[in-house]
């Protein structure tokens, strides 16, 4: 009994640093955010009146300012999710298959090459792509001018602003998905492909009947994580387009930031952020259930 107690205490000591970090940096901010959202928490005021669910009710009351900026920002965010997530999955898988088909030394080189942008900070990424997309002096428009093509308003007009954000996001984050897909592809037994070749299956049949079913759990993971990351988009539109042109790329997190630090209304901004977090959780659960059900039916 004594040795069991010592073993449990030792195990607890191993998880204690993570538990402490979890409570300080995740659990406490979440609980404090919920607390703030239940108050009229103005940034420059020392009095924070308890208002209960008033901030949440205002979000879902049509015609109010809070409802307008929340659902307008949510729609812009949803557009980005719809544009980016399929590409993050398809391009990530395509790159993984291409890299996996390379010889050993080149494979490692290209893995590193494609993953490097993922290690960059948002500010560095933005500086790089501002230099690429700048209307007057950017690399892309300078190249187009040499080819006799008119300048493209990459960051100042639609749909170019959306195209710029998607290109930037793919370049910045696709390396992570590619590495995950490569690991999944390497776990598919070679015996399956050899048996399929003996049966006369072509490359497309192998891909649809062996590769995709074998990596489906990993694809589900990438779909959910890419959706969550895309819902949390902030750096790209904030640093590249400033939400423009107009409010065309002003995503929900930019509106939350404006509500908190420009209008100084932390309580309602916290309510917006919590509703957004709950929405992401619901969408992730729905994605998981639909994909799991499809797998079970197969």
TrEMBL record:
This is Sugar ABC transporter permease. The keyword Nucleotidyltransferase does not apply. It is found in: Cell membrane. CDD domains: TM_PBP2. Residues 74-287 form the ABC transmembrane type-1 domain. It is a multi-pass membrane protein. The keyword Nucleus does not apply. The chain crosses the membrane at residues 12-35, 80-101, 113-133, 160-182, 218-239, 266-286. Belongs to the binding-protein-dependent transport system permease family. Keywords: Cell membrane, Membrane, Transmembrane, Transmembrane helix, Transport. Pfam families: BPD_transp_1 (PF00528). GO terms for cellular component: plasma membrane. InterPro entries: ABC_transporter_permease (IPR051393), MetI-like (IPR000515), MetI-like_sf (IPR035906). Gene3D superfamilies: MetI-like (1.10.3720.10). GO terms for biological process: transmembrane transport.
